[in-house]
Amino acid sequence: MCKLYILTFATLPFFAASPILAKEPHRQLDAHIHGHGELNMALEGNKLNMELHVPGKDIVGFEHEPNTKEQWAAIGKARSTLAHGLKLFILPKAAQCKQISSTVNYTHDEGEDSKHDEHDKEHKETVEGKEHGEFKGNYVLKCAAPEKLTSIQFDFFAQFPGSKELVVTLITEKSQKQYEVERDQPSLKGLTP
Q: Burial, 128: exposed, middle or buried (Cβ in 10 Å; 0-12, 13-18, 19+)?
C-alpha cells in the first residue's frame, strides 16, 4: 500500500550542486530495520538527484564485512545491479530521463562492541553491539521534460527480494512529499513535480 505524507516546510533546503539532500542531516534508518530502505529524490530544473540507502541484508542477505569469495562476489554483483538506477526506478518515457552518473558503495560498521562510556569502564561492563552493512547509491539524472515525472515503477523489489518497503522523499522547488512504497504495490502514481 502506498501512503503519502505531505511535509510542510516554510522554506525548502536545496542542494548546492543540487544538494537538497546534502543539506539535510542523513537520517539513518534505525541502523537497519531489515526490509526497509530509503530513496531520497531532489528535482531542481531538469536535474534529478537520487540517493538510496538500503540495509545490506536486504540486498545480499548479510550485513557483516564480506569474508568469503562468494560474499565478495555478491557485493560486486549487487553494486553492479544497483548502479543502473533507471532499471530499478522506472520513470515515465515522456520525461525523457537519462542517467548521467551513479556511485554505489557498501559500508560496514561493527557497531558499539568496542566502545564503552566511562560508566561501563568503571564497572567493567561491556556494551554489546551489532554489525551493520548498508548499500548507498547516488544517481544523477537529466530529464528533458521533468514536468512529466508523474510516476515511478519500482522494479527494485523484483531485483532484491529481501527488500519490503522504501520510504521515498521527493523534494522539488515547489514542495516536499514523502511516500511509502511496498513490495505488493511497487509503484507511485500521481506525482506532481
A: exposed
pLDDT at 43: 96
Sheet of 165-171: strands edge to edge?
3-6, 176-182, 165-171, 36-44, 47-55, 132-143, 97-109
Question: Which pLDDT score, from 0 to 100, does residue 111 have?
Answer: 61
Q: Report the candidate in 39, 44, 45 with the shortest Cα–Cα distance to residue 85.
A: 39
User: Is 167 in contact with 180 (CB distance < 8 Å)?
Assistant: yes
Given its phi and psi angles, is residue 65 left (phi above 0), alpha (psi -120 to 50 degrees) or beta?
beta
Q: In which domain, by residue range, is 108 found?
A: 3-189
Domain count for the chain: 1
Q: What is the pTM of this model?
A: 0.75
- Residue-wise pLDDT for 19-65, tens only, equals 444 434 344 434 446 678 999 999 999 999 999 999 999 999 998 88
Residue by residue, DSSP assigns 148-170 as: G--EEEETHHHH-TT--EEEEEE
Residue 166, φ and ψ in degrees, nearest 5? -125, 135
Q: In 10 A of CB 61, how many CB atoms?
A: 12
d(CA 49, CA 163): 22
The HSE-up count of residue 168 (CA atoms within 13 Å, CB side) is: 24
Q: Which three cell numbers stand for residue 152?
A: 515511478
